[in-house]
Amino acid sequence: MLIELSEDGGRPIFINLASSILREIERGRLKPGDALPGTRVLAKSLKLHRNTVDAAYQELTMQGWLVAEPSRGTFVAHDLPEFKRASDTVPVRPQQPAAEINTTTRSSLHLSDGTPDARIMPHADLARAFRRALGAPAFLASAGYGDPRGNLALRRALASYLTDERGLVTSSNDVLVTRGSQMALFLAAGAVVEPGQMIAVEEPGYPLAWASFRAAGARVIGVPVDAQGLDVDHLAGLARREPSLKAVYLTPHHQYPTTVTLGAGRRLKLLELARRHGLAIIEDDYDQEYRFEGRPVLPIAARAEADLSTVYVGSLSKLLAPGIRIGYAVAKPAILRRMASQREAIDRQGDLPLEQALADLIDDGTLRRHARKARRIYQARRDRLAEELTREFGQAVSFTLPAGGLALWLRLDPAVSAEAWAERAAAAGLMVMPGVHFTLDAARAPEAFRIGYASLDEASLRRAVDQLARTRMPATTQARSR
Ligand SMILES: Cc1ncc(COP(=O)(O)O)c(C=O)c1O
Questions:
Q1: Which residue from 158, 177, 315, 320 has its CB within 8 A of the most atoms of ligand 1, so it is best to mutate?
Q2: Which of 16, 35, 127, 436 could form a Cys-Cys staple with 445, CB 3.0–4.6 A?
Q3: From ligand 1's centre to the CA of 149, what distance in Å?
């Protein structure tokens, strides 16, 4: 650790050194229990005599700031109050809604917007595969820069997985591996619209997608969503009126946040509309693995003819964990080339051993087995959440049991403010996301909660619903203030 010697000509040097160390303790750079550099090392780096450093340590030890442990060294005393680093107290405020961020008190409960349970992911298999990838002769021979589209083994594995499981006829040349689908959304916007042109999005919808489109220079315009998903007739009207509309972004499998599946008729209409107006379709298929009931529904991209521009975006975040940053995009070569060259400009390429490890887990069936196990567990949690909500709230709320995905859309009485309820819940330690998080205009916020059920076990879900019930607004204060 680098310690700077403060200069104060009027004082002995050992006192100057002691006050330099004290300042580092007070500003939190040295924390209780931290080891100080050995006296010989520090003396050498500060060009002092070793006895001077010794004297500074002894001074601070006498004052109780440091403790000397025989044959171990000198440490910052354990019983000091914790001085925070200035930067610790100013968190970067992510755009992701609060319920996604696991930093509140230990007793609090988070109803996420649909994150998986990282505790059940195949850690040991992934760790083994990563270790293998790191030591593989092929990696050691060429561990440098590579293809900005990603590791070839992973692009091949994804292409064959997407062909088998999702009906996309695709090859490794059509696949771009990204750091999470977030990056794929940003690159997609840059590839299919010019700055200032418009992308239509579902509203309510996914704010982080809007943020990435705006960052790519696009203008974002909302299209309403109903019980059949995106209102394609509304989009048709917009496309007729707005020549700068060049793309539409949607989550047709389980609409984010309402969870409805885009109806078959609307899918056909959308394809026809895209062809007529030359709209690119950015399809975010973020949780395709999770379909519990009914027939599987293939992506729109699997039905699109070759003359259409589609960018199909997927992620491993819902299958493994959001902290494992692997997403992907599938598109025609011309679009994919633009995306890849922009990716190269901002991030050069992905993480080769991680990508190799995941390719192995796809090829050897580990990820498919994990998906089957996760589906069983999450379906049980969905059912448990539905039971608890019905038991606790009866007719006071309504929801349609989602056919898949990792979240439920809970509709409240329109006279109840979901936002005010969420604030009360947060004050009591329960994070839940109200409809206002998912709209472009707060005045259009639905009185609803998106409740992720996958990351909590059944007992925690029960506690969360109890807490939600306890923080329900008394009838007289329920009227919407907006
Ligand atoms: C609609 C939607 N798309 C994509 C993602 C996945 O994002 P990423 O792959 O960047 O983790 C999420 C995650 O919450 C999501 O809700």
A1: 315
A2: 436
A3: 20
